[in-house]
Amino acid sequence: MKAIYKIIFSSILLILICGSCGKEQKVCSTPESVTYTNDVANLVETNCFMCHAPDVYKEKASRNKIYDYKSLKKMGESGQLIGSITHAKGFIAMPYRKNKKIDSCAIEVFKKWVETGMKE
Ligand code: HEC
User: What is the phi-psi region of residue 62: left when phi exceeds 0, alpha when psi lies from -120 to 50, beta otherwise?
Assistant: First the structure.
């Protein structure tokens, strides 16, 4: 009889401990060295091009250019890139009016790119 209580007790304990498992922050596999060409360009394309692509940015993104290395670097240097995707005060939150941030691991890649000098 005692053994069964032990099993029940430890099961309950496990369930309680693991109640928070799913809420843990996910671990990102951010590359050692982040470059525009290898890591950043495709993130901009998938997350931002519906408004910031070369053929639509004038009407859909109020002429805010981020579609090539040079223009994105400028936004990185001014703080607007990280400010906007992290929804920091004083910046216009991106993606525009979606009320939602892009994937947290993608944000990590953008941050690392800026912190390590925005390599091409
Ligand atoms: C749904 C359309 C849309 C999407 C998606 C979008 N943007 Fe924008 N973006 C805009 C618009 C519109 C503006 C100009 C807003 C204004 O001036 O009021 C803008 C402005 C910006 C600015 C200037 C912000 C500032 O504070 O001055 C940056 C930087 C920017 N976008 C980066 C991004 C990045 C990076 C992504 C992808 C992660 C992205 N945007 C996705 C529409 C979009």
Answer: left
